[in-house]
Each structure stands twice: as structure tokens, then as C-alpha cells.
Write a structure and sequence with these properties.
The complex is a heterodimer of chains A (about 350) and B (about 325). Chain A is of the alpha/beta class. Chain A folds into 2 domains: about 220 residues, P-loop containing nucleotide triphosphate hydrolases (Rossmann fold, 3-Layer(aba) Sandwich); about 90 residues, no CATH class. Chain A contains 10 helices and 13 strands. Chain A is globular. The chains are: A alpha/beta (about 350), B alpha/beta (about 325).
Chain lengths: ~350, ~325
């Protein structure tokens, strides 16, 4: 892999609400290298989508605020956290593309597919003529696996199925050959056979174009299929980061254990209870002192409720924010059902 | 094992009449039965008719044709006391825990509504019963005075389950009861379903699109495609030896959360999309996407036959 295309450091994002301040993202750091797929996993409300949308600067201020000391360095030169809206417009959609979860609401219903894609092309490159832009749109639709692209560019979104609309979204995000693609739950709204088609397509395009991708999802199966690196988020923080193998075969955070064990596998024994994580995530109006997961963690110690753990390094690429990784912590065995070859 | 069929579905049809004389055959000739005390999973992709099937069984829709026999009696012909009893015996848990609870009623009222309608308990007994139900589904008595908006998605689904249980049904239809929930919460709710079944000997019709979860909870599974059942088998059989090409591709399309296994396995990626149920293909509905389609498949619908004991499939290859 190569140089980092994106370096996020200590990103903190809050929403000022009537009832107080919601600290949605509380000090997130990660890097995405060129040609790499980074997956961000976590449950609703963990801050994964806010992180992604802040990288694109899609959340209006107010109500959201990027806090002092946050840094989002894109392509080694753009400090996104400090950019104005007009500066951002030159980056967004050109060097950075985004695929949203819901293709029904993220396409313009009053414009043909061709007009939407060529609008994107011409916005960032005024020299391209209308006819050329339409030709390029048709090429993009062919690239994303749509047959008779010449006819498709004349169609409106409502004439297309969910899977086809998601293909249009992908074509749209690729229109200006972005360096970074952010895919926020790209397959969640789709049926499983269509999901398989879209993942296949994304992977194919990623390999061909070497675009870096940030993949946001709650589906660990999709992560296993596509990602190189994974970060696990909980209550606005990164609780574990590592390579795909680190996270699936040698996870070091009890929350990651819980996530991995709560997914039923096709080959799992159905007489066993599914491992669930008791309780619910904390309220981010008033995040708890200490580790945010402590209240739900079966291994919680006294220190966990008092001091929020820093990341402990397991290897160069792998770290976990959990006191169990402290040299003085008691030995805890990883629960059954995790690790290489534990099923299959 | 002697089979004790609590529910028998015979050639069930539900057609919707649309404008312009078009007919949408959402459910088109289903045959299956559910044994007392088991969980029958019904899976398929959106628009395959699985939810319509559930709703037709419980008479939220009137069937266009066919029979639904519950404890041997035809549900569609039930009247008066029989019908009342049927509505007590069969209850439903809905997909969306945000839309299926009345926001203006307290949780206690929501759960007690069925008890009042059927005149089961009143006064102190009723209150005690509601409290007991709340405890059974993992909530507490204090929750009875609160409103639905004060609860998380998983808790709301527990309330929906308590409501269904309130009138002591024998049979529960759960229509995508966990798809709106986060994974760790899904596991909590699935475990609750299993626990309640063990304690009360309930029978479930569990409708979902997530085959991995359905396999985990079900004894037997039916796979639907475009309004028709294409395969029915025990969940182990279905996983080990799926017979219908659609079931095979459905199983293969689910990504496994294990990178080594996922990279090693060969997947069948179906081409194309589900045809419109308004204009279904002739013969076998799956033939337009089937990797093994033959001329015969366009001509006739393959019969739904018992290929092995207890394992049914509808495919010309078998």
C-alpha cells in the first residue's frame, strides 16, 4: 500500500441541541492509505456516519461543530476541518465521492440519470461539452454493469429498481475519478442477491481504479468480504483498530468480541443461545466517565469505570482501547467462537 | 415423531386487484404446514410475498383462494365465538417497533388492550398480569407507565412481544421482528423468542429476509420466490443440501463474517433482478435468473414435490 490519502486526527464532533450538547464523535483518529479499503463498524449511534459525513463536510454548522484540535488531512494538502464551503465544493464530488445508503432518496427524482451524472462531470471540469459528458455518463453506467446504457441515461430514478439505483449512485460517485470513496451502508437497503452483485462491483472497481474506500457498515460479513483494515467504533470513539485478520481472529476488545459473537453463522449450532451484549449504548449527552463500554462489559474492572483507557498497541497495525491489554491486567481468555478456524 | 399440525395451508392465494384491471399475484398457490411447538421460518427477498402470506394467515387480508386450517378449522369460514377464539390463539409481532405501538398510549395500556377486549382479567389481576408480562420479556414494572417514545428499538420490540403474549396465544406470527434492530440487540430479541417458546410451548411463523438468523431460530424453513414456495426443508437440511437453485444462490450470497472462509468459498452471483410480480415469467418464476434454466422451465411450472422425506422443492432438475 502507499502513502496515506486521508489522515484523521483526534476528530471531535458535537451537536448543539435544545437539551444540551451531544458528543457524537469523541476523538477519532485513523488513516486510510492509497488503494486501501477501510471498514468502520459499529452499531447505530456509535458515530460512524457522523465521522464519514464530517470528512465530506456534509453536516451543516449549526447544529454540528467540529471541535478545536480536530484534523482531517486529505491527500497530504487539504485540511478539511478548516475549509470553507466554497473550498470544499471543489473537493467534494471530485477527489472525494460518496455512496449513500438509500438510493431512493439520494438521487434527484426530477432529473434523468444521464443529466445527474453529467452535471457532476461538468461541475468539476467546465471544458467538457454537454454531449461529451453524456457520452462519459453512458460509459460509467456500462462500467457499473448496466446494460443498454444509452437508453438508461434517458431514464428517471423512479424507473429503476433499488439495485439499479445503487449502481447509478456508484457511477455518479466515480464520475470524476475520485481518490477516496466513502460508502455509507451501501448495501443495507438491498436484497441479499442484489447486495452480492453490488459488493462484487465495488470490489471490482476498487481493484481496477485503485481508489481508496471507507466502507461504513454494521454487517461483519460485508467487512470480511471487502476490507483490508477495520476500525470498531463505540459511543463516539474507536475502541479497536487492526487489519482484517487482527479484528476477526485476534480481537482484543470485549466489544469486538460481543459484536463477532452476536452474529449467527449459517454453520452455528442453533441449540446454543446467541451471545448478546446486555444493555444499550450510553447516552452521548453525558458520556460516562471511564470506559464507555464498562457498563455492558462482562470483564469490567474498577479502573474501567474511573479512567478511560488509551489505545494499547498489540502490533504496529493493531491496537485496542481496553484495560485488559495493560501489562498489569488479569489474563482473560477470548470467549469461544472467535479466532481462526473456530467455525467451518 | 407423530406430526401434530397446528396450521395447514392449502393452495393459499392472495391476489390484489390494481387499477387498469391488473392483478398482482402476491401469493400464488402455497402449500405447507406447521407443527405444534415448532418454529417455521419463511424467507425470501422483498416482494416475494412472505409478509402477505403472514397477513393472510392471520386474516389481516382476506385470501383470494385456498384454505388456512388452524387446529383443523378453516380460518376463513370462522364466525362469532370461533373467530374470537382464533384471534386469541394467533397473534402477531410486527417489523417496525416505531410504527406498531400507539404513541399516545402508555405501555401498560398497550399490553392490557388485548386482555380487556377478550375480557380475561380486570382490576388488580389485570395489572398484575401486565407486570408479569413486562418481567417475562425482560422489562420492569415501572415501564408500564411510560410511553413508547421513551424506549429504544429493542425495548419496543419487547413491548410488542409482551402485547402479543398478553392473551396467551398458541401461535405467533413474527414478521421481520428483528430487522430494524442492531446486531447485538437482535441477538437479545432472538434469545427472548427462544426462551418464551421453551417456557410456553409456542409455535412461531418467523418471517425474515436474513437467512442466517432464520436458520438459527427455525426448525424448518420455507423459501419463497415471486409468490411461490420453491423449497421447504428442515433448517439443517436446507443449509447442508439446498436443492433449489434459488436457495443455493441465496445461501451463497450471504457474506460470512470470517475472512478466510469468505475468500475461500465460491459464490454464485445471480444475474439480473427479481421480475415484477405484475408480469411474472411463464413457467418457473425463477427461470429468468436461474443458471440452469432449460426450455422446459419456460413452458411449465415445476410441481412442488417431496424429493426426500420432509424435503420439498419445485424444480424441473429434481
Amino acid at each position: 500500500m502507499g502513502k496515506p490519502i486521508l489522515e484523521v486526527k483526534n476528530l471531535r464532533v458535537s451537536f448543539k441541541m435544545y437539551a444540551g450538547e451531544v458528543q457524537a464523535v469523541r476523538g477519532v483518529s485513523f488513516t486510510v492509505d492509497k488503494g486501501e479499503v477501510l471498514a468502520i463498524v459499529g452499531e447505530s449511534g456509535c458515530g460512524k456516519s457522523v465521522t464519514a459525513q464530517t470528512i465530506m463536510r456534509l453536516i451543516p454548522t449549526p447544529p454540528s461543530y467540529i471541535k478545536e484540535g480536530s484534523s482531517i488531512l486529505f491527500d497530504g494538502k487539504h485540511e478539511i476541518a478548516k475549509m470553507t464551503e466554497s473550498q470544499m465544493e471543489r473537493v467534494r464530488g471530485k477527489d472525494m465521492g460518496m455512496i449513500f445508503q438509500d438510493p431512493m432518496t439520494s438521487l434527484n427524482p426530477t432529473m434523468t440519470v444521464g443529466a445527474q451524472i453529467s452535471e457532476g462531470i461538468r461541475k468539476h471540469n467546465q471544458k467538457v461539452s454537454k454531449a461529451e459528458a453524456f457520452k462519459r455518463s453512458a460509459e460509467l453506467l456500462t462500467l457499473v454493469g448496466m446494460s443498454n446504457a444509452e437508453e438508461r441515461i434517458q431514464q428517471y430514478p423512479h424507473e429503476l429498481s433499488g439495485g439499479m439505483r445503487q449502481r447509478v449512485m456508484i457511477a455518479l460517485s466515480l464520475a470524476c475519478n475520485p481518490k477516496l470513496l466513502i460508502a455509507d451502508e451501501p448495501t443495507t437497503a438491498l436484497d441479499v442477491t442484489i447486495q452480492a452483485q453490488i459488493i462484487d462491483l465495488l470490489r471490482d472497481i476498487q481493484e481496477k481504479t485503485e481508489t481508496s474506500i471507507i466502507l461504513i457498515t454494521h454487517d461483519l460479513g460485508v467487512v470480511a468480504e471487502m476490507a483490508h483494515k477495520v476500525i470498531v467504533m463505540y459511543a463516539g470513539k474507536v475502541v479497536e483498530r487492526g487489519t482484517l485478520d487482527d479484528i476477526f481472529y485476534n480481537p482484543r476488545h470485549p466489544y469486538t468480541w460481543g459484536l463477532l459473537r452476536s452474529v449467527p453463522r449459517l454453520d452455528s449450532d442453533k441449540n446454543n443461545e446467541l451471545a448478546s451484549i446486555p444493555g444499550t449504548p450510553p447516552d452521548l449527552y453525558a458520556p460516562p466517565v471511564g470506559c464507555a463500554f464498562a457498563a455492558r462489559c462482562p470483564y469490567a474492572m474498577k479502573v474501567c469505570k474511573e479512567i478511560d483507557p488509551e489505545h494499547f498497541e498489540v502490533s504496529a497495525d493493531h491496537s485496542a482501547a481496553c484495560w485488559l491489554n495493560h501489562p498489569d491486567a488479569p489474563e482473560v481468555e477470548m470467549p469461544v467462537g472467535i479466532g481462526r478456524g473456530s467455525h467451518g | 415423531m407423530a406430526e401434530d399440525k397446528i396450521l395447514e395451508i392449502k393452495d393459499l392465494q392472495k391476489h390484489f386487484q390494481l387499477s387498469g384491471n391488473r392483478v398482482l399475484k402476491a401469493v400464488d398457490g402455497l402449500n405447507f404446514s406447521i407443527n405444534r411447538g415448532e418454529t417455521f421460518g419463511l424467507v425470501g427477498e422483498s416482494g416475494c410475498g412472505k409478509s402477505t402470506t403472514g397477513r393472510t394467515i392471520i386474516r389481516l387480508y382476506e385470501a383470494t383462494g385456498g384454505e388456512v386450517l388452524f387446529n383443523g378449522k378453516d380460518v376463513q369460514k370462522m364466525k362469532g365465538a370461533d373467530r374470537n377464539q382464533f384471534h386469541r390463539d394467533m397473534q402477531m409481532v410486527f417489523q417496525d417497533p416505531y410504527a406498531s405501538l400507539n404513541p399516545r398510549m402508555t405501555v401498560g395500556k398497550i399490553i392490557a388492550e388485548g386482555i380487556e377486549i377478550h375480557g380475561l382479567y380486570s382490576g388488580k389481576e389485570k395489572k398484575e398480569r401486565v407486570n408479569q408480562l413486562l418481567r417475562d420479556v425482560g422489562l420492569s414494572e415501572e415501564h408500564a407507565g411510560r410511553f413508547p417514545h421513551e424506549f429504544s428499538g429493542g425495548q419496543r420490540q419487547r413491548i410488542g412481544i409482551a402485547r402479543a403474549l398478553a392473551i396467551e396465544p398458541q401461535f405467533i406470527i413474527a414478521d421481520e421482528p428483528i430487522s430494524a434492530l442492531d446486531v447485538s440487540v437482535q441477538a437479545q430479541v432472538v434469545n427472548l423468542f427462544k426462551k418464551l417458546q421453551k417456557e410456553r410451548g409456542l409455535t412461531y411463523l418467523f418471517i425474515a429476509h436474513d437467512l442466517a438468523m432464520v436458520k438459527h431460530i427455525s426448525d424448518r424453513i420455507g423459501v419463497m420466490y415471486l409468490g411461490k414456495l420453491v423449497e421447504v426443508a428442515t433448517s439443517d437440511k436446507l443449509n447442508e443440501k439446498p436443492m433449489h437453485p434459488y436457495t443455493q444462490s441465496l445461501l451463497s450470497a450471504i457474506p460470512i463474517p470470517d475472512p478466510d472462509l469468505q475468500k475461500a468459498r465460491k459464490r454464485i452471483i445471480l444475474q439480473g433482478e427479481i421480475p415484477s410480480p405484475l408480469n411474472p415469467p411463464s413457467g418457473c418464476p425463477f427461470r429468468t435468473r436461474c443458471p440452469h434454466a432449460m426450455p422446459e422451465c419456460a413452458a411449465t411450472m415445476p410441481p412442488f414435490k417431496e424429493v426426500e422425506p420432509g424435503h420439498f422443492a419445485a424444480c424441473h432438475l429434481l
